[in-house]
Amino acid sequence: MGRRKKNAKKISGVTQKIYESNIKKTEKSNSDKKEIVEQKEENIFILKTVIDVYSRMKLPLVHSTQHRASDDSDEEEDTLELNFWPRFVFVSNLCLICMERSKETCESCGMVSYCTVKHKKEGWSKHRDLCKLLTEVCTTGEGLSLLPKLTADDYRVYRLKLIEIVECRLVRSLELWEKEILLYPRVCRSCRCFSKDLRCCSICGIELFCENHKSGHEEWCREFQVFGRILIMQHKNGYVNPEIPDTIQKSPLYMPNNLDTLMAQLYSCSTYYRSMDCYTYCSLSHISTIPLTTLYSMQISCQDWEIIDTLVVHIIGAEFHFECINLYVWETFFLHLLPNLKHLRLMFIGPEMRLPMVPLNLLTAVKMCPACKSSNRRVKVSFHPGKFYHDFYHSEQFIKPHIVCLFNPGLYRETGFDGRDTWPETIKKICKTKVPVCVTSYTKHEIPREMIRIKSIADVETILEPRKNPFASIKPDRNFVSDDTVPLIYKNYYLAIIKGKS
Ligand SMILES: [Zn+2]
Ligand SMILES: [Zn+2]
Ligand SMILES: [Zn+2]
Ligand SMILES: [Zn+2]
Ligand SMILES: [Zn+2]
């Protein structure tokens, strides 16, 4: 212990936080007194070296130091790796070419900007066609001058309408980044005025405001700094594959109430952990939030989570590119943290789930480490696309779950699928399973509405009142759906757990 503590002192830029609850929980899990003392020291060491995302903002891109253990095995395994370059993301004050901070705005439309005159010239051919239409749409009629007068809802509808008009005149659909020019236009964040004199926050370089609305941004500045940092690193390096901590536990791991603490603990403060940049760290949280939120919910709501040997998880309304890829992370966060768990069964169900056109066995294959393989432990995955949960419930494939997950479902919106609101039937069946259901939302404001919706349909008990999810993704995204409440959103930001009574 002494040696490790010495090392801890050398680590710079660390946040020192003590999470008492974590220590207490670890005490509870061990009967041996000596072990408790050791665990306690270990925890204090880890807590001293916790590094959060903000402290990682200036670090350069980290390079992976090792391959996953199973990569080295002789056995040729068929697993799927989705390799593609991330699409361009438009941000009104970042250069249309290189994503650096802008100093030049397009004189004609005033909607896009560039870091230098050089990039402005370079960008003209990419922008010309659209510029003509944007200029027309923004300046003809009431154009963008109407924006300050609209209600939050009308403002959303109006922007969608503008996209429609532009697409109609261009006779093609806009690419996503082109739509973003109109979805997140170059206007003052408070009054939505559109003028050439808008100023940009000098710290994050992203949010714009007019003369009258300089205050109020501070609350979000730090999050915008992370957002900007991620975008530029992603633009230059493509997607990153964070190295997942490889820690097979001897006894079930009680999760602390904090992602940073858990990561410090799992990586044992390795060099890789200490040098992980902000983009890689956010990507790590983004691919881990699904299994970690599930595990956390399970520790709160399932009594036998420590000893269970077969676990069935239902994930409803899954979005393939978020919940259904990176499945190997489940092996790390379930099989490696719960030594008694032998079989993990993941069932993804959803009418809107679209599977890519590749053989199913590639999609469902989960890379396993040699240790799990040799002890015959398994992660079994099945997809049930195009299926409502209430139909799945009565099908032959149905296996009773231990926990059901509804990640960012937006139940309260009642827009439904194909114009039909099918959530009531689904919610009834979910509650009929009488198992814990974890529900998450993008914002604090949404979760109470999700609870109201569920309670209006079924008789449920609340196991966990809505609260901030410690294992939410820390990768920010812009908010369109409720941008009048918060400008940035995070997957699984808020969490609640309920259970059906009847
Ligand atoms: Zn540039
Ligand atoms: Zn233009
Ligand atoms: Zn303003
Ligand atoms: Zn700022
Ligand atoms: Zn393993």
Could you characterize what this model shows?
By secondary structure, this protein is α/β, with parallel strands linked by helices. The protein has two domains: 274 residues, Vaccinia Virus protein VP39 (Rossmann fold), CATH 3.40.50.150; 118 residues, no CATH class. 38% of the residues lie in helices and 12% in strands. The chain has 17 helices and 13 strands. Strands 7-6-5-8-9-13-10 form a seven-stranded mixed β-sheet, with helices on both faces. The chain has a two-stranded antiparallel sheet with strand order 1-2. Strands 3-4 form a two-stranded antiparallel ribbon. The N terminus is likely disordered. Bound molecules: zinc ion (ZN) (5 copies). The site of one zinc ion (ZN) has 7 residues, from helix 12 and helix 14.
Low-confidence stretches: 1-28, 68-76
For the largest beta-sheet, the strand count, sense and barrel status come to: 7 strands, mixed
Bound ligands: zinc ion
State the fourth-level CATH superfamily of the largest domain. Answer: Vaccinia Virus protein VP39
Q: What is the CATH domain class of the largest domain?
A: Alpha Beta
**Largest sheet: spatial strand order:** 7-6-5-8-9-13-10
Distance between the termini: 52 Å
Q: Which structural class matches the secondary elements?
A: alpha/beta
CATH-defined architecture of the largest domain: 3-Layer(aba) Sandwich
Topology, number of strands: 13
**In which range does the helix fraction lie?**
25-40%
Order of helices and strands: HHHEEHHHEEHHHHEHHEHHEHEHEHEEEE
Strand portion: 5-15%
Count up the helices: 17
Q: What is CATH's topology name of the largest domain?
A: Rossmann fold
Judging from the principal axes of the Cα atoms, what is the shape? globular
